[in-house]
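Regression report. Comparing outputs from two consecutive submissions.

Submission 1:
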Amino acid sequence: MKPLSPLLCALALAAGALLAAPAHAVGRLVDLNVIDRDSGAQLPLYRHNGEWWVAGRPGARYAIQVRNATGARVMGVMAVDGVNIVSGETAGWDQTGYVLSRWQTTQITGWRKSDAEVAAFHFTALPNSYAARTGRPDHVGVIGVAVFREKAAPPPPPIAPMPAPSLRREAAPAAGDAARSSAATAEMEESAVAKQAAPRLGTGHGAREDSWVSHTRFERRASRPDEVITLRYDSHENLVAMGVIPAYPPQAQRPAPFPESTARGYTPDPPTWR
């Protein structure tokens, strides 16, 4: 599929999709977290070996909640299991994405099917995931957002000649660093596979739902994203097996062998009269 023009490759989310800011999220320019749509709960995020993880429940529908944490428009090229959630292409930074207005928060609930409809995200066994069913199972288990700032409009011409201001751009990660990081991640994933307690989770292509968007023009400030957010996921059982989630949560107090039989002594006096 031919890449879309950077000026015409974005979808504007419905203006009414404004929500309260999340309490906990991943990201700097954009806050990212996952919502269990069946319960409405925000899923806990876990930090492990430098990566963020979330535990999914097999069969549960979920939404990717994103919040623009800046005072200007940004575009997020979003991928699930290595697949662009708008176009269905194997994900790349130069593809289409969603544009968020300043401070906007919204929930992305599925694979985009048209300007008015999505196929719902839901956690499912890896072989039943959309990526695996379309012959791309290698990157199942990860949600990604590549965030782009918008190119500023050119200023009006000055009255008198003056030096052009320099634009400061954030340094992009070097190719070597990215390769080393990818290799380290691959080694970590190989060791994690051996510790799995249950089949791996993926994201399915669920029932069709209404979800309206419009098209908008967006020119990226640079060809490389200003931020890349990665959130990995699997079942609760597998995250416990991998050591991401503690097998035994910390106790609020020291456990007692006979909690209902503490030393009581003799009969206490009644309360005093007031």
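Submission 2:
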Amino acid sequence: MTIEKLATIFPQPILFESRRRSIQRFLFVPQLSIKALWFPLLKRWVKDRKLKQGKRLTLAIDRTQWRDQNVFVISLIEDRRAIPIYWQLLSKRGCSNLGEQKALIRPVLQLFKGYKVLLLGDREFHSVRLANWLQSKQIGFVLRQKKGTYIRL
């Protein structure tokens, strides 16, 4: 939905342009961040599901091109469903790099501090440096490897 469509149905007895600007200002309020609104809801949802601290949570990371947006998302896997937890819009086309991957994962690790985390990733996340970083944070991981990858113990 666009801001213009919202302004059209917004029930304020003011000019259309004023409604549009009001909605724009509202959407840029710092209190409307993912961390401020969505994280407390997720934390409460996990608590209400009786997922006690120390229990393992399964997370999945993925990146997709949606229309003209490059969306990078981390999701909680629960009852064979993926619930988006945190996402970023990348300002470039193509794969994410290690810095972007850490920036996506860190806030979620803070959110679920005290839980054991298993992180799943597809072939885009086959980096040894990412695996080493996850291991240093004591995060379990399963990163799918490309077919021709040589693995040495």
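Expected: both submissions complete independently.
Actual: both completed, but the second showed a warning that disappeared on reload.
Relevant detail on submission 2: The mean pLDDT is 84.
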